[in-house]
Design brief:
alpha+beta, Endonuclease, Chain A, about 120 residues, single chain, globular
């Protein structure tokens, strides 16, 4: 049992590192503005593990999760997965807000206004 948990932890850590390394341009844009307490003096983390899920960005102090979605999230299987994932995270006491990548590209001010609403 310990070997299985250790192997799963190692796989999760590897996946987490890969997600950080392979960030989308939109993740890089958002991260550049919220990292190092750059937004409202709040500490955000990226690619943070909660249960079996890795969330894009999280502010533990405000229990806020920010997810960025690309075109693949419109597919039926992804929509179902995202819905289940969001319900799980909300049961853990988090508020999850999602943005489409094109919102980051075309309306970054609006994205931050929406984030402020939840803070």
């Amino acid at each position: 049992m310990i070997k299985i948990k250790t192997r799963l932890a190692a796989q999760t850590l590897q996946r987490n590192r890969k997600l950080r390394k392979d960030s989308t341009p939109q993740e890089i844009i958002l991260w550049s503005r919220i990292r190092s307490k750059g937004f409202r003096d709040l500490k955000f983390r990226r690619q943070y593990l909660i249960g079996n899920y890795i969330v894009d960005f999280i502010c533990l102090e405000k229990k806020l999760i920010i997810e960025l979605d690309g075109w693949q999230h419109k597919e039926e299987n992804w929509e179902r997965y995202d819905e289940e994932r969001t319900k799980y995270l909300e049961r853990q006491g988090f508020k999850v807000i999602r943005f489409w990548n094109n919102e980051i590209n075309n309306n970054l001010v609006g994205v931050f206004l929406k984030i402020e609403e939840f803070i």
